[in-house]
Amino acid sequence: MNTQAQVIVVGAGPVGQTAALLLARWGIQVLVLDQRPGRGTVGSKSICQQRDVLDIWAAAGAGKVAEEGLAWTTARTYFRDRELLSWSFEREGPLPACVNISQTRTEQILDEAIAAQPLIEVRWNHQVTGLTQDDSGTIVHCGQRLLRAPYVLACAGARAQPVRQALGVTFDGETFDDQFLICDIKADLPGWENERRFYFDPVWNPGRQVLIHPCPGGTFRIDWQIAPDYIPTDTDISRKIRQIIGDRSYELLWRTTYRFHSRIASRMRVGRVLLAGDCAHLVAPFGARGLNSGVPDAENAAWKLAFALNGWAGDDLLETYHIERHAAARENLEITAATMRFLAPRTVEERMRRRAVLEGGVVEEVDSGRFAEPYWYVDSPLTTPEPGRPFRGRPPRGALCVPAPGVILPDMRVPGGRLRELCRDGFLVLLGDMCDSRLFAQVLGKVITVPLAVRGLAEVDGTGSLAERLGAEPGEAWLIRPDSHIAAIIPHAGPELVVDAVSRALRGSADT
What we know:
- The chain contains 13 helices and 25 strands.
- Helices cover about 30% and strands about 25% of the residues.
- α1 (about 15-25) packs parallel to α4 and α7 (about 290-310) runs antiparallel to α8.
- Keywords: FAD, Flavoprotein, Monooxygenase, Oxidoreductase.
């Protein structure tokens, strides 16, 4: 029954793969279980990956996702044949704002990284039928097979009802009636290679939507909203594709239909078991908030489990996984629910509002899905607030957020690499020019036992660009978490104030 694993990861999809790689990066032995006989090889599935997720994958050893993905730059939105609006991402750092790449290829890249990691074992044909746990560990039931480890991270997807049921976790929400037809095609569409196009009520899909994404290798992903009872035939699909691309030649690579769900688990942590990704939350895909939320779940869980297993933190830190990521899931549900009310209105009032917005060209009220952003832990118990640097709210579409406690650290090129590459091995203290980094390192090293590095801003980047991008003052100390979020910005900083901030970032308060 016993295994060598310190964490059993249930589910070998991208969220489970990411979690395993990040845990192994912390030196944790991982066993990954999946009920399937092996890896699927076709289908785009989740295609749009946001910059901060690309950063996580780079830290996990899967930087090829960003390298191979197609970095589209402009999002265009149409009402029938009239363009309503377009927007582009602000460029920051060496990674693109997002890339499109098929989930199938992403999984292959992650598999390559896992194969090179001796601390990870993957077992297929292991369907989890139940979970039990006690004070010393968890037991994963795979039929008659029992596997024991100190912790379990469940990344088993939307159909992981046996796992949720064993934990007493509900999965409340709703399923939308309308279906969506997805096709991956290969075609030559000049001018469309770097643009995402969203059509409200086009003449070739009246009353509903169509979304077109460019992908690597001259391929495109097309999503049609279709009626709940519509069964597409090969002839229908060919006709729909022709209505968009005309008489150009094309190759149909993959097709499927699906319905959207909006659901959230009542708990994302139950004792020694954490839930992540679609196992814990489901959202409509407009805005690409599914996998782009599941991967940060994996990162948040990985560093906290590693700290618990290494004796650097206790139960309080693990509970903040639920606090932080459940709040992130709730925010995504709120945003995508508003989008779905606009895309698929259910009441007379919602239909009238949508019609007025689209026909009147009220651009600021058009909702085709706010693109995925990292959740910022402004209200987390691990964040030390600073009144002089309040969170200023969500920036305009495509824009960058002003740094503040709880917000993710901006990324940028620094001598030797990227700024966030300095953050992944523990806590990082960045000091302004008036702070003595040697003194801070000596004092902090005597009282802090968790991995922690102290660097002066000028030491990291002597050009002054880093301090300017952060808006950092000479006497400030910036405490950065292992997941690159800003835990504290301390004005007039002394070592003892940094100790308090680290204590809070490990336990949720500075005096425990």
